[in-house]
Amino acid sequence: MLSYCTVVALLPLVLGRSVSLNLETRAKYHSTCLAIQHVISHASQVFHPGNVPYVNDTSHWVPSSTQASACSVEPGTVEDVSKILKIIGRTSTPFAVKSGGHATNQGFSSTPGVHIALSRLNTVAYHQDSNTATIGAGLTWDRVYAELEPYGVTVPGGRISGVGVGGFTLGGGYSWITNRRGLGIDNVVEYELVLPSGEITTVTASSNPELSFALRGGSNNFGIVTKFIFKTYRMGLGGVMTFAKSHIPLVLEAITDFAANNTNPDANIVGTYIHAPGSAPELSILTFYNGPTLPLAIFDKFLSIPRASEDLRTRPFTDLISAVSAPYLNPTHLRGAQHTVSLTGYTVDILSQILNQTDFYAESGSFANGSLISVAIEPFLASGVSSFSANDTAYPHNRYISPLALFWGWPDERTDSTAMQDMERAAAAITATAEGEGQQLTDLALYNNYALADTPLERLYTVNLPRLRSLKKKYDPRNIMNLAGGFRF
Ligand SMILES: Cc1cc2nc3c(=O)[nH]c(=O)nc-3n(C[C@H](O)[C@H](O)[C@H](O)COP(=O)(O)OP(=O)(O)OC[C@H]3O[C@@H](n4cnc5c(N)ncnc54)[C@H](O)[C@@H]3O)c2cc1C
Ligand SMILES: *[C@@H]1O[C@H](CO)[C@@H](O)[C@H](O)[C@H]1NC(C)=O
Ligand SMILES: *[C@@H]1O[C@H](CO)[C@@H](O)[C@H](O)[C@H]1NC(C)=O
Ligand SMILES: *[C@@H]1O[C@H](CO)[C@@H](O)[C@H](O)[C@H]1NC(C)=O
Ligand SMILES: *[C@@H]1O[C@H](CO)[C@@H](O)[C@H](O)[C@H]1NC(C)=O
Ligand SMILES: *[C@@H]1O[C@H](CO)[C@@H](O)[C@H](O)[C@H]1NC(C)=O
Prior knowledge:
Mean pLDDT: 92
Helix content: 25-40%
Family: Belongs to the oxygen-dependent FAD-linked oxidoreductase family.
Distance between the termini: 39 Å
Number of domains: 3
InterPro entries: BBE, FAD-bd_PCMH, FAD-bd_PCMH-like_sf, FAD-bd_PCMH_sub2, FAD-linked_Oxidoreductase, Oxid_FAD_bind_N
Strand order of the largest sheet: 15-12-14-13-17-18-16
Low-confidence stretches: 1-16
Keywords: FAD, Flavoprotein, Oxidoreductase, Signal
Bound molecules: flavin-adenine dinucleotide, 2-acetamido-2-deoxy-beta-D-glucopyranose
Strand content: 15-25%
Domain FAD-binding PCMH-type: 65-235
Number of strands: 18
Pfam families: BBE, FAD_binding_4
Radius of gyration: 22 Å
Shape: globular
């Protein structure tokens, strides 16, 4: 006991976060850890602070999402996930479920209690006869793509390295092939789910339409998903172009033109604008084409502008993912947050306001050298909504939504609250500009996977919220999932 307490007492120093649990609470969480250790099979393992795997298990893309947990557990089988959840429910112990750890809201996949890291749920199996793949919920998309590449197929997964299968697929899932195939949630044909009660079940649209709806955007409200079966598709190619500051006005025109005039669902771009205080801002266009060769004519307008750098080419999908991911790897371990605005279209004025907000806060007093403000502009095809195969989804996306991903990173914990307030101000200013041009945004869902933790649930789930609330009551009557963080119905 003494040595355990010593280790716990040292944790705040190791993780840079204050832990204010009293001894009784610590002892309670610790005994839950021991109870779990006692029942799980050899496929699974519990780690305590000080064990090497504990650090990777509890860590996140931004360190501000990490909390010191009593222990981490890596379940290797669905049966062990069930046993763990039963013990957690019986003892009412706070817990977390982590897949790729890209949540930027603190507590969404971190806890002072039992941290469940899904990394051992890592199988990828391609089923050629049905054009589907079984994908473990603890994988990151890079590994999924690498395993599917030899078969020449891919799935609608994350666009950037490191994003987890679990959180992405339960929240929504905007992919490189979303224009043609819809979101991740539109392409899952089966879920293996451990219900909050610990019961193991299989969910398909026909076997359980209620849970099938709820899991398509309802994140971690309905239990722990251990694997997904996805539809698979041929993979594509693309690359990145970056532009010097002097050419930004031309690039904004080209983005507006692409957003308004592109009709080819195989083509997709993401505009990223990154402004680190004290350095020149950078505008890049990430391009993707879902086909065997790159028809450059689609990107003509961009290619008529001088590029600071460019590497558009026919390439393996995994290579494309690493090329576009470079700015998003957070090598300096900035703290950070994400937020979002849902738009229905782009004009040069709206894009200028997006850049203006980025510049304004990057140059404002609260941001220091070593910080970073970035925004991803995602002009999905306006007609793409008709190709979304399933519209009975918890995340309401049957109306056209172009989500904006604001990411702000900073080194100092003292910046946390002002940065998040400023992000909300920036989002409000962008929204006001778009509404001033006539966009109807008040009923348009905000994307839960990008939204700050205090975003009202009505803004995330709109008309679906009452139904989700009643399903949550039905499938989690004892509110076990409320022991974990996240948006709660
Ligand atoms: C650099 C970066 C790039 C991104 N790119 C994209 C993109 O291209 N498209 C897009 O749509 N989004 C993107 N996102 C947003 C991303 O989808 C969300 O951050 C998502 O929640 C991350 O999932 P994760 O598994 O990595 O995170 P985690 O932090 O592990 O999990 C996120 C949430 O999901 C829950 N969860 C995870 N797995 C399970 C499970 N198996 N069962 C139950 N609950 C679970 C967790 O408890 C947590 O609440 C990006 C984010 C970042 C930071
Ligand atoms: C570390 O965690 C990540 C998920 O956050 C996982 O993909 C990876 O396999 C883990 N690495 C090790 C060595 O366990
Ligand atoms: C769309 O294309 C038409 C025809 O080329 C052009 O006149 C128009 O300006 C384009 N729209 C935008 C927003 O650029
Ligand atoms: C930030 O760093 C850059 C380059 O190192 C320097 O030119 C600039 O003055 C710094 N800005 C502030 C506000 O310290
Ligand atoms: C840029 O943003 C700031 C802060 O919101 C605002 O005061 C200013 O008017 C904006 N500038 C333009 C040109 O919109
Ligand atoms: C789903 O799509 C069908 C066909 O487009 C439409 O009739 C139906 O109203 C949609 N359902 C919802 C909930 O949007």
